[in-house]
Structures are given as C-alpha cells and as structure tokens.
Amino acid sequence: MTTRSAPRPALHAARPVAPETLAGLRVRDDAGRPCRPYEDPEGGAPLRCCLRRSRPGERIALVSYAPLRRWAAERGVDPGAYDEQGPVFIHAADCGGPAEGSGHPFAHPFAHPGALRTARRYDAAGHILGGRALSLGEDPDAVLEQALAEAFADPEVALVHVRATEFGCFLFEVRRP
Question: For the whole model, what pTM was predicted?
Fold first, then answer.
C-alpha cells in the first residue's frame, strides 16, 4: 500500500482569482451572464476564490471566467486567439481568500494518484509557449513544483495556468516569481 505525502508549502505561489475580479463576477460573469448562487448540497467543488474544495451547504456560484484576458488587460497586451473563458466555482460572497501555506490547490486530498493536470505556459504578450501534461502521482506537490520550475526556467515564460485535464477547467495561475 502506498502512502500519499502531506501537502507542503508551495515554492511557486498559486494565485486565486483577485478580490476585485470576484466582486464583479458575483454580479455578472465574463460571458455577461448574471451570477446565480446556490447551496452546494454535496461539497467538493474547486473554489477559485480561496483555492479549496467547497463544503456541503456552502453558497457557491458557477461563473464564466476569462483568466488570460484579465491578466492581459492588466498589462495592456492582447492575447489574441489564446484568449478563452470557461466555468469556475466561486463562493457566492467574500470568503477572505486562501489559507496560507496550504500547498498546491486541488492536489490534496481529493485528487487521486492518477489525477491529470496541464500546465500551460504563456509569454509576456499572452501567447502560448506550450504546456505539459502532468500525472499528479503519489507526490502531487513535487510534480507541480517540478513542472512550474521547468516552466519558469524558460525566461520567456511570464505566466502558467494549471488546468484539470479531465474537464479542461482553469484551476489556478502562477506568475513569474
């Protein structure tokens, strides 16, 4: 029997959706739809506001989010065809953000050893430089840290988006340290 490792603090900081962005998404999402909060009956939704899984009974919302578009707008660049939006879960009200030192989001304890992630690399103009498919394995923090270290070893990489391969969902971003 294999024992999974405990979460370790991440060297490359995962960034939640910014509070000011969340405030807007709680009114109208990036597809222009109004936010429709609901009570999560089962829990387990990956929340991008606090980078943890929801608990049963929490009020959450599923909204459309365009992470690269928002990052590019902060920098005055145009990601062109690489701009995309997709569904993300957030708390229906301000939650205070993620806890400090909680390791990599969505790697523990819900990710099984065969969980798949993709680390997409973008340059300073928001254009994709490639990516890497990841199997989280028995030590998900180490797998993610290695992929992020490899990505940022390339001086052209400004940003990495980590996505769930199973659904293609954006999970979190890491910016160049």
Answer: 0.86
